[in-house]
Specification:
Blueprint lengths: L1 E12 L1 H4 L6 H6 L13 E6 L10 E5 L7 H7 L3 E10 L14 E3 L2 E9 L2 H10 L14 H11 L6 H18 L6 E8 L4 E7 L8 E3 L2 H7 L14 E4 L10 E3 L4 E6 L2 E6 L5
Helix pairs in contact: 4-5, 4-6, 5-6
InterPro entries: EgtC-like (IPR026869), Gamma-glu_amide_hydrolase (IPR052373), GATase_2_dom (IPR017932), Ntn_hydrolases_N (IPR029055)
Keywords: Glutamine amidotransferase
Protein name: Class II glutamine amidotransferase
Length: 279
């Protein structure tokens, strides 16, 4: 469906992972061997928090409907952005049209959200799920994707207070409504959401066959594994990545997130929590 990455750590020039890595996100937009679709050419997006931003700062976003590998603005922008936390996403459209408002990441206040996957048979459940969004949030739904509806359901269920509980409630609602409409496996995908300080990365599907998701090992360990790899020098000791698929050819740098798991990344590193839908 799509490919995405999330970075957190010392301020990093975005081009290091969007362009320059062996299997960068832009490279994955054209050739994604672990993806459901090899080519992800239906739009690109990046959202970032400026260096030195205080808690609660509003992130900047850029969206383009051009294929990432063919968009000069993507290259110019990624070489200019230096940020301690950024999201980026390349899209393979699965029904909703190719338009800027359908590109990820989505933004609400100080939050960013992106998704790889789908809500199965979305046409059957779209009305019920859209009407379940808090009325005050409804005007902020500007696109037509199932992902944006899912994001606003999570906000409705209290994302700002308890992201894990809100994601659980949103997925439960998707599964409940889907099964009421005869959809066998309503939810599929990986999700990343951040408030600008912590990243929550979810791997879950109703069928138990979720899209791939990985996160990096800590940089000091990676340097011990590959002391001669000069390309690692641009990353600080707290640099961390969450990715749809690994960005390089160095074995062992990325750890697969288990099925039905939410990986939580903060300044102390990662910890995993089991993710279960109550539906």
């Amino acid at each position: 469906m799509c490919r995405w990455l999330a970075y957190s750590g010392e301020p990093l020039r975005a081009s290091a992972v969007l362009l320059d890595a062996t299997h960068s996100l832009v490279a994955q937009s054209l050739d994604s061997p672990m993806g459901a679709e090899t080519v992800n050419g239906d739009g690109f997006g990046v959202g970032w928090y400026p260096e030195g931003a205080v808690a609660g700062s509003i992130p900047a976003v850029f969206h383009s409907v051009e294929p990432a590998w063919n968009d000069e603005n993507v290259r110019e922008l990624s070489r200019s952005i230096e940020s301690p936390l950024f999201f980026s996403h390349v899209r393979a459209a699965a029904g909703p049209p190719i338009q800027r408002t359908n590109c990820h990441p989505f933004r609400w206040e100080n939050w960013l959200f992106m998704h790889n996957g789908f809500l199965a048979e979305f046409a059957k459940v779209k009305r019920d799920l859209t009407f379940a969004i808090d009325p005050s949030l409804y005007p902020h739904v500007t696109g037509t994707t199932d992902s944006e509806v899912l994001f606003h359901l999570a906000i409705t269920h209290g994302l700002a207070d308890d992201p894990v509980a809100a994601l659980t409630a949103a997925v439960d609602q998707v599964e409940r409504v889907g099964r009421d409409q005869g959809v066998l496996f309503p939810m599929q995908g990986t999700i990343a959401v951040t408030d600008g300080a912590t990243i929550w990365a979810l791997r879950y599907s109703s069928q138990g066959r979720s899209r791939t998701l990985f996160h990096s090992r800590d940089v000091p360990t990676i340097r011990e594994m590959y002391p001669e790899a000069e390309r690692l020098s641009q990353f600080g000791d707290h640099a961390q990545l969450v990715v749809s698929e690994p960005l390089n050819d160095l074995p062992g740098l990325f750890i697969e997130v288990p099925e039905s798991t939410i990986a939580i990344l903060d300044r102390e590193g990662y910890h995993h929590e089991p993710f279960r839908s109550a539906a």
